[in-house]
Amino acid sequence: MPELPDHVARNREYWDERAESYVANARENWAAEEASWGIWSVPETELRMLPEDPEGLDAIELGCGTAYVSSWLARDGATPVGIDNSEAQLATARAMQAEHGLDFELIHGNAEEVPYPDGSFDFAISEYGASIWCDPDLWIPEAARLLRPGGRLVFLVNSPLMMLCAPKNEEDPVTEQLLWPQFGMKKFDDFEGDDAVEYHLPHGELIALLRRNGLEIEELIEVQPPADATTSYEWARLEWARKWPTEEVWKVRKA
Ligand SMILES: C[S@@+](CC[C@H](N)C(=O)[O-])C[C@H]1O[C@@H](n2cnc3c(N)ncnc32)[C@H](O)[C@@H]1O
After folding, report:
1. How confident is the model over 59-112, as pLDDT tens digits?
2. Contact call for residues 44 and 221 (beta carbons, < 8 A)
3. Is 85 in the pocket of ligand 1 (CB under 6 A)?
4. Which of 66, 76, 80, 241 has a CB 3.0–4.6 Å from the CB of 92, allowing a cystine?
5. How many angstroms is it from 247 CA to the middle of ligand 1?
6. Which atom of ligand 1 is nearest the CA belonging to 110?
7. Which one-letter DSSP state was computed for residue 21?
């Protein structure tokens, strides 16, 4: 088997170690009647990340984790495939499939190199999966390759502004100071306490990358927490998130 790129190997170890702590979240999301998203559990009615008319769509979830997003797609009549780098996360996804009587394909692999031919999908989605853990110069072209003309890619990421204000110790709350330079920002791999690698691009560079890959931007939503929002992520402060975006949704379409 070819050797994994360094960031993929590091992130595999990171997620295999943490999978256990995501089981409760998987249970909750698999059982949820309504989809909700991200740090603040913003309801689907607000963000509209899922396809309007999912019936019969071929969909891929890039970095599916415990695959609850794929389960929502399957329940709505789409045919999802989930790919994830962590076998431990996929073990939870498989247990949830059995518990909920839902069956769809789950692939253990790197979302930067998906074993499917060009133009296999109508819809691609990533909620903090490939969208932050994969190299954007690899996963965005790969998502574009996998989509049929007219197909859509929707993804949720941390806002670049929040990343610029995030302290080196990831457990510490986000600050009101710019702690990192924006120019040259892309790979974040020196957070204290773990060996994981994240990727975050400034808006200008992400827009250019999407357009170079034939992806037209339909919408960028800078997410605001709902009135009654809470979160289990201690570093995300509600007071901060009421003033600046902690996360954002990109919706793009293959020309
Ligand atoms: C926060 S989870 C996101 C998935 C889902 N929304 C959830 O919260 O369970 C991040 C997932 O990205 C996966 N991941 C990281 N690097 C990846 C890669 N190169 N290819 C595929 N999946 C990857 C991790 O294994 C992890 O399961």
Report:
1. 999 999 999 999 999 999 999 999 999 999 999 999 999 999 999 999 999 999
2. no
3. yes
4. 66
5. 17
6. 20
7. G
